[in-house]
Amino acid sequence: MSDERPSRATEAFFGRRRGKPLRPRQSAAMDEIRPAYAVDLSRPAPSDLRELFSAPVDDVRLEIGFGGGEHLLHEHVRFPQSGFIGVEPFVTGMAKFVMALAETAPGNVRIHDDDATQLLDWLPEDSIAGIDLFYPDPWPKRRHWKRRFISPANLDRFARVLRPGGRFRFASDIDHYVNWTLLACRTHEAFDWQAASADDWRTPYEAWPGTRYEAKALREGRTPAYLTFTRR
């Protein structure tokens, strides 16, 4: 399998992976339920990603760094005809999400609990209808900017797996990271920014459920921005 993957090096774009020790039920869910939903990167990706799902789906979407999973849980119910792959390396967030999956046993969700670049390099070209990256770690110190997920290399990865017309959505409450992302995407030849006025990036996405991190940002007086780009 390693010979079939791009040789591009990966780098961890997340910080710590563990917080407080998991509760017994969370540990049990990670051991017993998570494997049934995990994407197996040791095997070649199917040429048609819809084969990953036990439920019939029309397309596949990807959410990177889903945190507590509020948005992903909302979307997989709202769009049962779509398959969703969620990525979250932080163990506590993944454990909470897996416990929620155990209650509904959806056939249109798969997960990856490690570096998203590994998954992106595994995916076939033009296989993804949409990529969501909401409230990623902003790495505010200048010496850490190289660890921001939005970079020319990762936008190349997005461009490879997104089908033409596919959407990349980015939300953040950190002005510098919003500007960073806007500049990077407008510089990249594969992406068009979908905005005609300021309201287009100040207004949350349609049926947006919010996240716990966003609620904290609003309480602390930070204003989120919601960017949308399409793959040319």
TrEMBL record:
Binding site for S-adenosyl-L-methionine: 63, 88, 115, 137
Function: Catalyzes the formation of N(7)-methylguanine at position 46 (m7G46) in tRNA.
Gene3D superfamilies: Vaccinia Virus protein VP39
Protein name: tRNA (guanine-N(7)-)-methyltransferase
One term under GO cellular component: tRNA methyltransferase complex
InterPro entries: SAM-dependent_MTases_sf, tRNA_(Gua-N-7)_MeTrfase_Trmb, tRNA_methyltr_TrmB_bact
Keyword hit for Phosphoprotein: no
Catalytic activity, EC: 2.1.1.33
One MF annotation (Gene Ontology) recorded for this entry: tRNA (guanine(46)-N7)-methyltransferase activity
Record pathway: tRNA modification; N(7)-methylguanine-tRNA biosynthesis
Family: Belongs to the class I-like SAM-binding methyltransferase superfamily. TrmB family.
One of the Pfam families matching this protein, by short name: Methyltransf_4
Catalytic activity, reaction form: guanosine(46) in tRNA + S-adenosyl-L-methionine = N(7)-methylguanosine(46) in tRNA + S-adenosyl-L-homocysteine
Domain of life: Bacteria
UniProt entry keywords in alphabetical sequence: Methyltransferase, S-adenosyl-L-methionine, Transferase, tRNA processing
PROSITE patterns hit by this protein: SAM_MT_TRMB
Keyword S-adenosyl-L-methionine: yes
Residues that hold substrate according to the record: 141, 173, 211-214
Class of this enzyme: transferase
The species this protein was found in: Aquibium carbonis
HAMAP family: tRNA_methyltr_TrmB
Residue numbers spanned by region Disordered: 1-28
